[in-house]
Amino acid sequence: MIRVSELSMPLNYRREDLPAAAAKKLKCPLKTITSCRLVRQAVDARRKDNVHFSCTVDVTVAADETTLVRRAASPHIRAVTERPYTLPPVMPSVTRPIVVGSGPAGLFATLILAKAGRRPLLLERGRSVEQRRADVENFRLTGVLDTRSNVQFGEGGAGTFSDGKLNTGVNDPRCRYVLEVLAEMGEAEDILWQAKPHAGTDRLFKMMQNLRAELLSLGAEIRFETLVTDIRTEDGCLTALVTETGEEFPCSQAIFAIGHSARDTVEMLHRRGVPMIQKPFAVGVRIEHPRQMIDRSQYGAAAGHPALGAAPYKLNVTPPDGRGVYSFCMCPGGEVMAASSETGRLTVNGMSRFARDAANSNSALLVGVDPSDFPSDHPLAGIVLQRELEEAAYRLGGGDYRAPVQLVGDFLQGCASTTLGEVEPSYRPGYTLTDLTACLPSFVSRSLRAGLPLLGGRLRGFDRPDAVLTGVESRSSSPVRILRNERCESAVAGLYPCGEGAGYAGGIVSAAADGIRVAEFMLQNT
After folding, report:
1. Could you tell me which residues come within 8 angstroms of residue 145 by beta carbon, excluding any fewer than 6 positions away?
2. Model's pTM, two decimal places?
3. Domain boundaries in the chain?
4. pLDDT, tens digit, for every residue of 8-53?
5. Residue 149 reports pLDDT greater than 50
6. In sequence order, what are the beta bridge partners of 121?
7. CATH no. for 98-277+481-523
8. Residue 448 has pLDDT above 60, yes or no
9. Is there a contact between 105 and 500 (Cβ–Cβ < 8 Å)?
10. Is 3.40.50.1220 the CATH number for 2-79?
11. Which residues are CB-contacts of 217 (< 8 A; sequence separation ≥ 6)?
12. Quick one: which of 47, 113, 323, 341 could link to 447 by a disulfide (CB 3.0–4.6 Å)?
């Protein structure tokens, strides 16, 4: 098979046009190509007067591949071999493994264990996807926090259920397998070739429901509203898990894929002697602009073309004598959403539905936080800092889960906001106009003030005075790394820390891939 990249295709191209474009680049007759599959499609908007797609295809040919590749003499043409994901060798075992947490890491670890015939038990502290959806809608309308489930669909499952950004910089064949599974579960073939694949909150419901059905059909058992509150050990080995109801689950192998919001579980593991260390993370706000402005800034006259949809961006600057400021988790045509998981603490995130057609586009605007910024050298000091910021945001918003909001112009001038401009905040159940510096570390406020004008130079209108800032974004990643050895096992034998919450991933796909990796090691360990 030959991979042909950098095919420039017009916005209105059809799939049937790809073989001819590939043949031209290969310098061979069209009839030589026997099959052509789209592998990647990205928007090239470097020139606003020539916005087009850059495509990569895999072709099979009725000719000698080596000769064709050599004759083409192009860095964008190479021979490739498909290597589909396969299960590793499985050691025999009578032990039933347990997976704690149903985020991307937990779900895919469970899938691999189930495919290997281990009949895993998945314990989820939150509720089913159907119940969580009702939780979110209720919160948006009433502002009532149900502490049984993270507002953003459950601790450990937040990343999976919030938005579905599936791009990753991790070069791991497991990542392709993750996309293939999700595409099959959601009948979403497009995520296999999008340069920045996006499932969308609405499509994720179907994916998760179908994946749950698949796990059950493979012999897995799933228990919702089952919070693990303790572990039992003997001679340094895991022997059982204990839930909040006092029920015990004997086990010698358990994957803890708890997500970076399951702070109580992390605290329990620390008390039980599971080694962990501080880890850098980032703090900031959500910034919202009119979607059409972002589209015009990115795509020029091509903005609004039905083949393009809402425009993404990825920005970063380093102000002189300041910390880097960067966009993260950008949501074209999306909304700012509640992500609180603890009573009296407020944090926000972002999401987009598949259509990405909401009035605003938003992203996190973050500044790095290093362990030297933490209040102490305790392994969980980063969580202490996060909680302090979230409590301040809760108070600043009015104490009822309204989010504190400030306009960019007022933030830059150092004064509280009292009125809105053109941009209407999307956060529900509501917001309070205020001064966000009251809930941000001073170094974060300084860096954001220095960085916003520079970002406006990168993307026209980014620092417009009436753009909306919503605080506080404090959960970009885990502030803790739960230590594990080269076989992904902690110092407690049989306990496997996994995914983003354990400090080993940074997004849905990388977390899912880590879940697969950890399950593989478990399958090879008796």
Report:
1. 139, 151, 340, 343, 401
2. 0.92
3. 2-79, 98-277+481-523, 280-473
4. 999 999 999 999 999 999 999 999 999 999 999 999 999 999 999 9
5. no
6. 98, 221
7. 3.50.50.60
8. yes
9. yes
10. no
11. none
12. 323
